[in-house]
From TrEMBL:
NCBIfam families linked to this entry: QueF
Protein location: Cytoplasm
Protein name: NADPH-dependent 7-cyano-7-deazaguanine reductase
Segments traversing the membrane: none
Gene name of this polypeptide: queF
First-level EC class: oxidoreductase
Amino acid sequence: MSIERPDTLQDAPLGRVSAYPEHYDAGLLYPIARAANRAPLGIRDDSLPFEGEDEWHAFELSWLDTKGKPVVAVARFRLPASSPNLIESKSWKLYLNSFNQTRFASRDEVIESLERDLSAAAGAPVVTELFGVDDERLTPRRLPGECIDDLDIEIHDYTPSPELLAVGDEVVEETLHSHLLKSNCPVTGQPDWGSVMIRYRGPCLDREGVLRYLVSYRQHQDFHEHCVEHIFTDLMARARPERLLVLARYVRRGGLDISPWRGTPGERPPEPLRLARQ
């Protein structure tokens, strides 16, 4: 199964009034090429400067068993950053809702359908896990490292300003995080709230500068995935760390949360990890 790759948001369901589907329909998925948003950052799909994934949780997934009885589950999807496409979030939600009145013989059949359709839209394999709503593996946790949100600083920049990033001479290995990340949807302008973790080894980052820089995304319009790539590329350019991992956990919206991470080769995020706001 192949899905055409549109290069614009002109026909995307995001920001439009949409009828919710009553029957399973893989054609609802709307892939968006990553390349256009990566080009201004100097990122090429054929030579990515990072490894990573976009991890999604879906909290509004349900289908019917063979007797017509509803089944509910929470899904976790992992979409590789190397895929040529991301998938627009509202189309993903509409697609998942198309399962609501569809009968499946087993959970395995549901997973098979999800992985087939999402992989076709992304252009790369998407890994799917299903959890019961009370599964302990979904218990919220805290981000590792030190929170920098209590720093007493003045802030004047609310669009991405990499010049705010500064480093010292000492080489350190540390993990910092902030819950003050906010960006805006590039189509609807709605706020996207998130937490971000930065784990690195390299010249010591000035923490006040890091916090000012993260807050500078407050009026920026972009997809979650590209915001994380923007942060990663700015940190690499300004600090030149030996190792770097940038992970964002965005607040759930429309039954979905998105948690992209990007890292230098060999860097992996702590797993599993969900926050209370998700």
